[in-house]
Amino acid sequence: SFFRCFKIFDIAHALTSSPQTVFTAACDVIKEFYEDNVIYLELRSTPRAVKDVMTKVEYLQAIIQAIEVSKSKFPQILVKLLVSINRKEGYESAEENINLAIEFREKYPEYVVGIDLSGDPTRGDLFLELLEKSRKVGLKITVHCAEV
């Protein structure tokens, strides 16, 4: 069913609850795409914090580290990052993620190329200001529009 397919995210979140497990998972994903002969990959991920274990900054840093390590192991694949915002998490979380995307874009312009807007497409107007802010600093935008 439609809702059952999203259960995979619960499993993924349970398996990636620390910077080390996020790093390992990102490395594994990149390796799998490399083995499938992909030459350009845009990872998209919503930064997550786990109380007393991992901040959103540490989460994103783990993905950046995985991209950097994979770059030397698999130079044939070019990997970029889209920082995701999920409409169902509300404006405050989206604003925090946009600010992190901008911060990480400044630190890692060779990796962070855009943002990804996911979740309920009927709740998009709330985020227009944040999308404009993102675009003004050069971040590209991808939008999920049929997830209901």
TrEMBL record:
PANTHER family: ADENOSINE DEAMINASE, ADENOSINE DEAMINASE-LIKE PROTEIN. It catalyses: N(6)-methyl-AMP + H2O + H(+) = IMP + methylamine. InterPro entries: A_deaminase_dom (IPR001365), Ado/ade_deaminase (IPR006330), Metal_Hydrolase (IPR032466). Residues 2-147 form the Adenosine deaminase domain. It comes from the Eukaryota. Pfam families: A_deaminase (PF00962). This is Adenosine deaminase domain-containing protein. One of its GO terms (biological process) is adenosine catabolic process.
